[in-house]
Amino acid sequence: MLSGEIDRLVAVDGRMRSDGGSSLRVRRGARWQSSRMRTSGMTPDSGGEGNMAEPEPKRKIPLVPENLLKKRKAYQALKATQAKQALLEKRKHQKGKQIQFKRIETFVRDSRRKHRDEVRLKRMEQKPGQMVLPQGQKLAFVVRIAEIKGVSLRVRRVIEMLRLRKIFSGTFIKLTPASLKMLRTVEPYVAWGHPNLKSVRELILKRGQAKINKKKVPLTDNTLIEEHLGKFDVICLEDLIHEIYSAGQHLREITNFLWPFHLSVARHAARNKVGFLKEIGEPGYRGEGINKLIRQLN
């Protein structure tokens, strides 16, 4: 009886082992089938027939107007040009300015010129002399005809006050004791005299330029003159010429409205500098002879 019971237990255990192995295989197979259905887009309830996922719609690329593309291209070209110019400027500054060598004669000449100016101005202070205004003359035209390198500081300041920063530049001034003293200070470097009406008219018509916002504007429109000088009763070009020639009370305002007159130099001046300097004559007071110099340089 005991042996029969043992055989029955062994048989039951064998069935349990065999059922456990088959259930394990079934569970593994179900897990593999489920993963396959998920990857293929099938569902367990679809009866084995998979429903494929719908493809996503393609995104449309927005079109750019042609004029905008042209503007972008032009802007890119402009930025490229600016970058190139900036690079060239940077290299230029990095390279530095070339060293300019001066001969010892230049320093000697400048030193002597400065010493002569100091001695001359000192003598003027010790013996000022009598400054007499030319009778019946109120207007003078001053032209710078010499270089001012190496001059004394006082002479340079007077040159700047007269606005004669460039050689062969000229300006109108009203003759007063103060202006005569200034002319004596810069006498070795300028020529001055009394212009006639013809010379004044020729200078204004040919070389006249207004100074508006630090820019040169030709005197071609009476509206421009009236706009800036109308408060001085100067409304046209003829009024401007008359006010300058008569050395009126608003001469200073009018001369400040005009740029200094930049006179031209003859073509042969570069080839024959000595001969040209002889033609223009010595610096100093010319009187009526300034009209000849104006026609020569105008």
From TrEMBL:
Residues 64-134 form the Large ribosomal subunit protein uL30 N-terminal eukaryotes domain. Residues 140-190 form the Large ribosomal subunit protein uL30-like ferredoxin-like fold domain. Residues 32-43 have a biased composition (Polar residues). Keywords: Ribonucleoprotein, Ribosomal protein. The keyword Ribosomal protein applies. The keyword NAD does not apply. CDD domains: Ribosomal_L7_archeal_euk. Transmembrane segments: none annotated. GO terms for cellular component: cytosolic large ribosomal subunit. GO terms for molecular function: RNA binding; structural constituent of ribosome. Residues 18-57 are annotated as: Disordered. GO terms for biological process: maturation of LSU-rRNA from tricistronic rRNA transcript (SSU-rRNA, 5.8S rRNA, LSU-rRNA). Pfam families: Ribosomal_L30, Ribosomal_L30_N. Belongs to the universal ribosomal protein uL30 family. This is Large ribosomal subunit protein uL30.
